[in-house]
Amino acid sequence: MSSGKNSFSKKYVLPILYPIKKTFSKAKLWTGIKTGLVKTVMIQPYKGFGNSQEIYLLGRVLRDRGIGISNLEDSRWRNFKKMYKRFMSWEIPNVKVKASFQGLEQEVITDEEGYFEINMKSNTPFEINQPWQEVELTLLDRIVKNQGEVKVVGKVFIPSGNVEYGVISDIDDTIVPTGATRLWEMLKTTFLGNAHTRLPFAGVAEFYKAMEKGTDGIESNPFFYVSSSPWNIYDFLTEFLEVHGIPKGPLMLRDIGLSREQFIAGSHSAHKLLQVEKIFEVEKQLQFILVGDSGQEDPEIYLQAIKDFPGRVKKVFIRHVAPEREKSVQKIAEEMETLGVELLLVKDTIEAAEKALEKGWILQADVGVILKGKEEDGNY
């Protein structure tokens, strides 16, 4: 769609469609509650992050559809049904959620899609005895009959101890092959697979664990994952990281669907840049290694982040998955170099690990572990 047509649609079509969608969603939820289709509700917290005096956490209030975890032997049909439930969500708008953390409390109201945002700041430093801290989240409104207490614990990562650097990584075609540039391949992979059957690129888990340990051997360097995947598959991606031994960390995803401002989803690059820079703003004491791929716009996004936050990026690794983009990526690399940051276009994980070792960011012993992991995973 041309920019002119897109502008026309947003100006004249969207104001008509959005109220219809909003009315339908409201009627659907009301009917679901009255008929008993919606029997239980849940708070789904997304892992957050913070510093010594601030925490940032997102979450969503939804109908509890009991999706649960996956198993290796799950059929494609079972995987499809679970993914269908994730996307056919029943969001709960305009309800109050209370967050409690180390004597601080904050009440927020969910938006039209059931999302809420917690941003707490303290005048005094928090008591940090471990990196992962718990935030208590409580639903204050009664939604369904016999609801009982709806309470959950959210997790926020607050870097502590000897942190050498942070890592911000893309997911699709950076950690796991998805064919993000090929729509049908991406849809098939997403809807018919599960956390066990989807496999990361060879050696990625070992490389990321090596960076998590850094040079002191302590798993204290934080990881953040920024992706244009929808929040609907948050639990799927969290389980994927856990199943394959990839360091856990906050996932910054995006909302999709019709809203006041958009038809399907917001700009891929605008979303990712916003999330990367949000991490920079909160984790202001850290420098970062950025990891992405050449298939979409990661090089352009990271270049802009470097311009906006000088001195915060140590290195950029870009997995070479789109040969047709090689020249444009190299041009971006030249511009990054003038800003004091090296972009390395790598063909595989081993090349990235060797460069990280050369820079003194990981241990020599871990390179052997990465090589072994790559051989065991296969050459893909």
Automatic annotation (TrEMBL):
It holds the Pfam family APP1_cat. Residues 165-320 form the Phosphatidate phosphatase APP1 catalytic domain. Coiled coil: none annotated. GO terms for molecular function: phosphatidate phosphatase activity. PANTHER family: PHOSPHATIDATE PHOSPHATASE APP1. This is Phosphatidate phosphatase APP1 catalytic domain-containing protein. The lineage of its organism: Bacteria, Pseudomonadati, Bacteroidota, Cytophagia, Cytophagales.
